[in-house]
Amino acid sequence: MAQSTTPSVIRRAAGAVLFAVVFWAIVALSDQFNTTLEVPLRVELPSNQALTEPIPAMITITTRATGWSLLKMLATGRVECVVYPPVAPAGERVVGINRKGLLASIRTNISDAQQISVSPDSLTLAIGPVDTKTVPLSPEVTINTRKGFQVIGSLRLEPDSVALIGAKKVLQDITSWPTEAVVLNDIHRPVSQGVWVSDTLRGIITPQTRRTQLFADVQEVAERSFPDIPLINRGTISDTSKLLILQPQRVEVLIRGGASDLSQLDPTTIHAYVEVIEGVDTLGVAYPRLSLPPGLNVAVVSIRPARIRYFFRREIKE
């Protein structure tokens, strides 16, 4: 019989303990408490004015309220410091906000909250007229490709520019605007990915475009040999009776680049040449160079032979 009542006794004891804890919590949370919070700082200005120097994104406040109110404040997160500088004509000016002004600017949904202290206890606002400027976007992107692959050409953004709104004094020194930093690893195919536009000067400069599309051509690295490329001379031969003889008259070219680009490269668009000038070049040896189609992102691995011999032969006219 004693064994059958043991679970019932345990349940009654647990219930009593739970009731005691709940009752204690209700009583305790009715008391007043101090707590320290970091809250967002925001400055509201007319549309024709903007900050010219950065301010803290957050400030620290100490507030006093009942435990229930503090729990509500922490749960909803509806507390911030919103500063409204005195209205004045557009122009360069400095406005100071003291401790009293900052405490009065705290906004919260808790009616019984009392703001006790704030840090920093003062704020200096540098304000100036607003302007708009459009600048190129700069991709802050690092692409680490898989072994055997490479990025072909430059990174591309669409849109590739951004309109900035902010203080005229600050905008005049800005020539480009970055994206947020992005690192892509193990990339082995072309990239098309959205990236965020940086907001590093929040409260001072506002980019009107928040997101852009990143494009990068990533191809497998390959090499292709082009034999029998004709060799020509781009130097000046003033004596028309002299004929420049190149030995050999053709070269073999090895080019490295993206596999897709190399497969589409037309050998007739590859031009090998030397620059031998009559009366200036007398060594009898020249080094071939290459002219490739514009916009082609490849590297010349080798030209064989690396040097050629030449001599002049006078033509006999009958």
* Helix and strand element order: HEEEHEEHEEEEEEHEEEEEEEHEEEEE
CATH topology of the largest domain: RNA Polymerase Alpha Subunit, Chain A, domain 2
Based on helices, strands and strand pairing, what is the structural class?
A: alpha+beta
Q: Give the CA-based shape.
A: elongated
Question: Mind describing the biggest β-sheet?
Answer: 7 strands, mixed
What does this protein structure show overall?
- The protein is α+β, with helices and mostly antiparallel strands.
- 17% of the residues lie in helices and 50% in strands.
- The protein has 3 domains: 2-129, Beta Complex (RNA Polymerase Alpha Subunit, Chain A, domain 2); 130-220, RNA Polymerase Alpha Subunit, Chain A, domain 2 (Beta Complex), CATH 2.170.120.40; 223-314, RNA Polymerase Alpha Subunit, Chain A, domain 2 (Beta Complex), CATH 2.170.120.
- It has 5 helices and 23 strands.
- The strands form 5 sheets. Strands 10, 14, 16, 18, 19, 21 and 22 form a 7-stranded mixed β-sheet that branches. Strands 2, 5, 8, 11, 12 and 15 form a 6-stranded mixed β-sheet that branches. Strands 6-4-1-3-7 form a 5-stranded mixed β-sheet.
- It starts with a helix and ends with a strand.
What is the gist of this entry?
The chain is of the alpha+beta class and 318 residues long. It is 17% helix and 50% strand.
